[in-house]
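[Primary structure, fold]
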Amino acid sequence: MTALVVIGALVAGTTLLGLLWRSRQGRARRASGRAAEFASGSGATLLQFSTEVCSPCRATHTVLERIAGERDDVAHVELDVTHRPDLASRFNILQTPTTLVLDRTGAIRARIGGAARPDVVRLELDRIEGAAA
């Protein structure tokens, strides 16, 4: 009977952790720091950290390229952390894809862990544009 209770508690705990992790994927969090050397848009830069074997990275690339193509003042830069582990360490990249939203000065304004959703990215860009006005 004790074994069943322990197994039940483990399953429930694991399920809760999984749901918490899933709820945070693709959401933007406020972030700080600087990445001025990667800022290449006249308004904002979408700095994507990826790896070669990451399938959500390809989907995120497509989303970010499309959004950058919609806006004249937004650039998309993709970095492979497999070849640049120093950047993974510097920006505390623990999962791929991770997208940093930079303003025109290279200040990190938001961080999106997991596959970036178009509505979330557009909202962050609008927020940056509104703050600049």
Remarks:
- The helical segments are 2-24, 55-70, 85-90, 118-132.
- The mean pLDDT is 87.
- DSSP finds four helices and five strands in the chain.
- Residues 2-24 form the longest helix (23 residues).
